[in-house]
Amino acid sequence: MKYLNAFLFTFISLIIISCSKNSVPVDSRPDAQLTGTVSDFFQAPLKDVKIYTDPVSENVTTDQNGHFIISKINTGSYKVYAEKNGYRTEVSNVLLKEKEVTDLSVILRWLVSVSGKVVDDESGQGIGNVKIVIDKYNSSVFTNNDGTFQLNNIAIGTSAATFTVPGFCLKLENIFIDLNKSTGYEYRLIKLTPVEMIAVKGGSFQMGDGFGDGFINEKPVHTVTLSDFMISKYEVTQKEWTQIIGTDPAKFWGEKNPVESVSWNDAVNYCNSRSVLEGLNTCYKTVNGIVTCDFNANGYRLPTEAEWEYAARGGNLSKNTKYSGGPDLKEVGWFYTYSENITHNVGTKLPNELGIYDMSGNVWELCWDYFDANYYSSSAQLNPTGPAQGQTRVSRGGSWTDDQIFNRVFYRNFTSQFARATNVGFRVVRNSK
Fold first, then answer.
1. What is the pLDDT of residue 2?
2. Which domains does the chain have, with CATH numbers?
3. Most CB within 10 Å of its CB: which of 43, 133, 136, 427?
4. Is 415 within 8 Å of 366 (Cβ atoms)?
5. CB neighbours of 399 closer than 8 A, spacing ≥ 6?
6. How many C-beta atoms lie closer than 10 Å to residue 338's C-beta?
7. Is the peptide bond before 249 cis (omega within 30 degrees of 0)?
8. pLDDT of residue 30
């Protein structure tokens, strides 16, 4: 009998253990609860709004008070969609925690159609083919020949818009769409200020330190032959940058000061953007983070290191001085001793033989080439474009933070493609027409 009782006890115990493994008490399930309210732009509750999530859970609709509830939803991160005909679908990111109620407040905005006109700020005439983009609605439209446009399915309220067309500055504007106004919207564009370019006649020169007092990466002196090109008379100014990009990143503000605090990648983007706004072919293409340059394109680009040095020396008019424009750096460039620790208006010192300003001092100027300290030993002689790969890019000319030795026309510096600094800017070149 005692063996039977022991057997029954063991059997019942196994059943209890098995059941406990396959059942979870309700109060320990990892469920959460999502509640919320949906209202319109004037905070009136909206009923019959469809609420659904990604990952998928229960689909619900709001009641007459705009309320909804999704019970026993798994914990984790979700995108919550609120959708109703005639309104812009809103997406909210939520994190649901175990045994907690998360409350969400959503505002839906009416979708409307509006019309207006884009005009030349100077003449008041309509501008055709202006591209208007409102990113957050994935909406874009081009103006008609007379500058008129119509935007469909745009939510009321304030939205960021961009206006672009060749020959005019990029316009970034927060536009306000009024529920009670469907027409009469007007936006004014300013004509793009052209870049002053200096034609540089090609030729051969001795590249590197010919004075014998420089650094090893400035040697050996070697012959380089370049084709004709054009280079900007001044470093790219904050006014020019803002006309193309729309914002000013510089620390030392002044529309005639060189733009600084921009990276090599930023400068490449500027070149392409200016090319587009002037109706030129872009030089740069980026694929999987690798930037390539079409040196045959007619758009703007950064100078090669050889082009930069040739222009800084004065091209075929060179007087072979250490600094761009003369032997006395005080006369031709802003450098540490006299800069007062700031950048200065471009063109306020003496130019070099070609009429180019500030190629010694003010800000370092970015070049196209990857930096290689030993490149001069294997450089191509005709139109060299630098090493095929590298970790950093060449910068030239010295700056307001540097002593005289760094402002020599043959001094070679380098910078990361991603770094930004208050003493680094650039100038642009184009192929000769």
1. 42
2. 26-107 (2.60.40.1120), 111-189 (2.60.40.1120), 197-431 (3.90.1580.10)
3. 427
4. yes
5. 334, 335, 361, 362, 363, 364, 406, 407, 423, 424
6. 12
7. no
8. 55
Listed residue (46, 40, 44, 82) closest to 63, CA to CA: 46
Q: Assess contact for 87 and 154: CB atoms under 8 A.
A: no
Instruction: In whole angstroms, give the CA distance from residue 145 to residue 129.
Output: 7
Cα(426)–Cα(223) distance, rounded to whole angstroms? 25
Task: Return d(Cα 351, Cα 346) in angstroms, integer.
Answer: 10
Please answer whether residues 80 and 59 qualify as being in contact, where contact means their C-beta atoms are separated by less than 8 angstroms.
Answer: no
Residue type present at position 95: L
**Token pair belonging to 373:** 């300290």
Contact by Cβ (8 Å): 315, 353: yes
Q: pLDDT for 35-81, tens place per residue?
A: 999 999 889 999 999 999 999 988 999 999 999 999 889 999 999 99
Token pair of 31, please?
A: 């469920």
Which segments in the chain show pLDDT lower than 50?
Answer: 1-29
Q: How many CB atoms lie within 10 A of CB 125?
A: 10
- Give the pLDDT score at 147: 98
* In the block, residue with structure tokens 């907690």: 100
**Tokens in use for 74?**
């798994």
**AA letter at 433:** K
